[in-house]
Write a structure and sequence with these properties.
single chain, 340 residues, alpha/beta, Rossmann fold, Chorismate Mutase Domain, subunit A, 5-stranded antiparallel sheet, 11 strands, globular
Length: 340
């Protein structure tokens, strides 16, 4: 996407394609757009607004938009960003939801990073607005460069295959219509659309790990190793995504065949069917069993999975593995376990 003349048309066409091909928005939905006022989120909001009639006429998809904006009280400019976003919402006549939270204070109190705290506060707010106002999805402005940064961040942290596949177009109730669009194109779009977005100067400070990846690591990789590193990482992502999809589907079949009983209180299963598989599938199988019971894998670490596999391998009736108040895995009899 390198024709300046057609950059707006190209982005609008690609966003439309992303929405239709990945079923990001269905007819009659109410979409809450997370907008900071920066270039990415303004491109997202503007494109979704401009595509309303196009998608209605060409694809029979009608939807409503609203905006959620959070002031983290970290920077003095935040109050001006709030005014900017609110005024834009008035201009295009859509609802504006606002939250102001002292992230530096909350992060110190919770003893977590400002970055993690900010994300937690934002998404709690987004989901609260979503539920209270019967919105169906949250749209975020993650772009191709964010995706590459996420993959590198996961690599640095020692991620498995899933982490190296980066971001999906959809995750639970979150949609990312810009995830395959480069930051440079988004910046050009803002200029050509006269959006005059707010620029968060902290993005250029190397205070957070993600900023260091963006400002230091990627430029070094481009300049010293391979100028096409971003495209190469995205190509790797697509290759690994196919492998991940296969392994996920295969694991689901193995786990489904192992389950004896599944109700609201507990899941009973024949773990020998998981242990008979390759090491990779064993690990994934245990995680899938936990996910079936809990509905998610929040707080589940590699060590928990390895300990549960040891429990299965020892295969001693009555032995248990307990993770706090999350769940208990118990060997009921030879090869049969329950998670409750």
């Amino acid at each position: 996407m390198n024709s300046e003349k057609n950059i707006v048309e190209n982005i609008l066409e690609l966003v439309k394609l992303n929405i239709v091909e990945n079923n990001l928005i269905e007819n009659g939905e109410k979409i809450l757009v997370a907008v900071s006022g920066g270039p990415d989120s303004m491109c997202l909001l503007n494109s979704l607004y401009l595509l309303k009639n196009v998608l209605k006429n060409e694809n029979s998809i009608e939807y409503d938009l609203a905006v959620a904006h959070v002031n983290h009280m970290i920077r003095e400019e935040s109050k001006f960003e709030k005014i900017y976003v609110e005024e834009y919402c008035k201009k295009i006549n859509i609802p504006f939801f606002y939250l102001e939270e002292n992230i530096p204070f909350i992060s110190k109190k919770k003893k977590i990073s400002e970055e993690s705290c900010g994300r937690e506060v934002r998404y709690n707010f987004f989901n609260k607005v979503l539920l209270e106002n019967k919105f169906t999805k949250i749209a975020t402005a993650h772009n191709l460069n964010d995706d590459v940064e996420t993959i590198l961040l996961n690599l640095i942290r020692g991620s498995g295959l899933k982490g190296l596949t980066g971001m999906d177009f959809k995750f639970k109730n979150i949609i990312r219509p810009l995830v395959n669009i480069a930051k440079s194109d988004i910046m050009e779009y803002n200029i050509l659309q006269n959006l005059n977005p707010c620029i968060d100067k902290t993005n250029f400070e190397n205070k957070y790990v993600r900023n260091k990846i963006r400002n230091l690591l990627i430029p070094t990789l481009q300049n010293e190793y391979n100028e096409n590193i971003i495209n190469n990482i995205i190509r790797m992502k697509h290759i690994l995504k196919k492998d991940e999809d296969f392994l996920k589907k295969y694991t689901e079949i193995v786990v489904k065949n192992s389950i004896i009983d599944n109700n609201i209180n507990r899941v009973k299963f024949d773990f020998s069917k998981i242990l008979n598989e390759h090491e990779s599938i064993k690990y994934r199988g245990v995680r899938k069993i936990i996910e079936i019971k809990l509905g998610n894998l929040d707080g589940i670490e590699n060590i928990h999975v390895m300990d549960i596999l040891k429990l299965f391998e020892n295969n001693i009736k009555g032995k248990k593995y307990i993770i706090g108040n999350k769940f208990t895995v118990e060997i009921e009899k030879k090869n049969i376990a329950v998670i409750y």
